[in-house]
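This follows on from our talk about sequence and fold. Can you supply me with one protein entry, sequence and fold together? Could you add the entry underneath, on a fresh line?
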Amino acid sequence: MTLKEHKKHSAIARPAHGNFARNEWAIVGAPCGEIKALADKVIAALSPQYTCGYVDASHAQADAGAAQPGRLAAGAAAVYTDQISHHQFEYKEQPNSFQFRQLFSEMDLVLVNGNHQHAKAQVVVMDESKKASLQKRLSQLTNVSLFLLADNAAEVFEFVREAVPGWQELPIYKLSDSKKIIAFLEQEMRRAKPVLQGLVLAGGKSQRMGRDKGAIAWHGKAQRYHMADLLGEVCGEVYISCRAEQQPDLNRSYKTLPDTFTGLGPYGAILSAFREQPDAAWLVVACDLPLLDRQTLQQLTAQRNTAAIATTIESPHDGFPEPLIAIWEPKSYAVLLSFLAQGYTCPRKVLINSHIRLLKPLNPNTLLNVNTPEELEQVRQMMP
């Protein structure tokens, strides 16, 4: 093998992140005050539906030539302050792109002051007072989504037209028309809604049951296939999660997804799904739920909240969220990994300590799981 052919690192699917988040727009070409004002309007309108973030620079400290504040000046690397109405972190070192993506990992939408930072997509303002500044930033215009005209501009500047291929096909609004701008970004967010895939957890060893729970034919076929068929009614693609040694024995008409995070139970199965498709949302169900019905799955999908890390159902037994009847959004991937790095592999603990949407069960019996022969007989008596 030559040096050119050698691959040092494994190739895995990467989330479609920008510098900060999956969906981010830099507003460039306007004075900073105008950018802040527009960002305020957009965030106020969209924050009830989406988790929003904002990135800017502080002109006040730059103008004053200020030294680092407080404990940072004394040598601290990071400072957290409970400001009562909000919470503030200060860092001595500027975060790099990897750290920024961690800090903004739960954001659905991030707006960026393009005078100071770059973003994956851009909203470009035509403002005569910032024309020279915009000319210096042409290299930033890599993925323009929208043009805005300030009151002193009548059209897209010629040098911008030359720099942006297909500029004629992009919408052009007045900078003052905040309703149209908000509607445009809202439409873009709807288009970016993560596709919903299904995952049947069938990789357990069924030690308490004494036989493979996924193979029990509660509904005329092995339960893992029955669950996959149910998920197929509400999901794009459905995969049966399994151990690698199980895969050759499973029905080849069903897609399978072997665990790549091994030894972690359901936690590893969910992480394995995100490793395969990190930009998808995963509707995860355990295979030991013989009473689970399509009405419950339709409830989950109809009331799904993409701004949360997950949408799940409250357990009628203890009031806690059910992690194995849940829609896990793409943003939960980083959260699950962070809990794993701290030594936790309980998906319920992740849900309890995160922003989730928790639904009341339509029928508590649909959440009953079967782990032992005794429970099997009890549930069998409940079935029609």
Summary: The longest strand covers residues 321-328. The chain has a mean pLDDT of 91. The CA atoms of residues 204 and 335 lie 23 Å apart. The chain has two domains: 24-60+97-191, 196-382.
